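Follow-up to my post from last week.
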Amino acid sequence: MFSIFKKEIRSFLSSLIAIIVIVVFLVANSLFLWVFKDTNILDAGYANLDPLFYLAPLIFIFLISAITMRSFSEEKKTGTFEILTTKPISDTAIVLGKYFASLVIALFAILPTFIYYYTINTLALPEGNVDSGAIWGSYLGLILLSAAYIAIGIFSSIITDNQIISFIISMFLCFFFYTAFDYMGAFEFLKGTNFFIQWMGISYHYRSLSKGLIDTRDIVYFLSLIVLFIWLTKIIFSSRKW
Amino acid sequence: MSIRVENLTKTYGKQQAVNNISFEINTGEIVGFLGPNGAGKTTTMKILTCFIPPTKGAAFINDLNVEENAIAIRQQIGYLPEHNPLYTDMYVKEYLHFVGSVYGIKNITKRVQEMVDLTGLQVEQKKKIGQLSKGYRQRVGLAQAMIHNPKVLILDEPTSGLDPNQIVEIRNLITTIGKEKTVMLSTHIMQEVEAMCNRVIIVNKGEIVANGKPQELKDIFSANKVLSVKFNIPLNTQQLVELKQLTNVTLIGDGSYSLEGLNEEHMKTIAFNFAVKQQLMLSEMKLQESSLEDIFKNVTQKK
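User reply:
Got it. Predicted complex:
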């Protein structure tokens, strides 16, 4: 698994995907957080990072889909899939190696935003007067959310050998799991099951974690979603043997 | 027994790719796997490398079943897939390093350098695979197949698309390495088989139509023996007519004639007796070998 992981990381770096994703993520966030008039923290007057945790999941829908779209599609298209699957590594090891490589890239995109936390912490009046619990809870939520997006993205990549299709499917699924359940919960005719439907979406649990309350149920939800999509990926990956 | 295939069948949907084939390959043999396009060569190789499972029947590598011991088998075989897929954005050494680490080789750096030297990649070792010419890519493909010193090598068209010089080089490489290993290679080129292989298996439409040493196949499949003879003086018309009464004769030119018949000895006797009778001298008498190409055409075109 480790050799696959290493190979994926190197290929992210050599193809510049990793760098571009990290840079775009940080530039986009910084512009919204510190520069643009309507959304910036400085004018808002409150020492919190809410705009970051509102924006990041939306930006990640695009960027994580871009990270994961090639992971299996490209191997299938170029035929290296056959090289990989005739080496003495289990299917699970290949899937996990690719999964964790993408996850590390996403974590490296999140990591520099700790500077924002430091900035807020310093600007707060009096200094250090920020709701750290909420912020760390939000960070945990954001990390779990990107881990779930990546599982979805890897899954989208295994079902097609076309990177563009994989990208679009991944964006759709991420968007769907993130927010569509919220909107569906608002349907009049689904009255009564509203709560359950909203509960199925990522954003419900993400919001819950961002209050700074780390609830095992939310964590279990994220982990189940991740395991589900990795498992589906593994099933489809092994389906060549059917 | 390095490779054993028993009643192997593979169907894709309704299409039968491989139909109930059985063969064995002994340790140390270099076996050529021949057949027209779509005969089932690649499918058989994919089953042997545990890429796809058989529909029916079983295949064994070093007595391990491909369906049960996939990981163990993959550790023991080197595989060069058809079209030689490679990670074009990786550097030559980086790629070999990666493959080496997948096989869990100790002392990878040294082994990678050995493979680079062995396959003649020294000049190109600093390049990205995508920048290499086809011949060098093929070497990288062979290097990755052999980096873990496998007992069994399965090579799917190792020389396709190369220029004649490269073909000779790759061929020499395979023969050198093949001395201690079991090699199964597929190809369309008959000379290649004659130059490298101890044994030939010809498949057609998913079935084995010939299996044996090149020489044996020639004996079995060329029904008519062709004897070319040359007399010291070209025959005159009357002599030719007389000879034609004895057997089937064609003039090759230059005073040579080819005699065709079922039995080699019988034709030699005819030629000799004829020469004695006509007071001619036999200056040359040679049995024409039928080529593997003829056999290939013969066994794959009937039906």
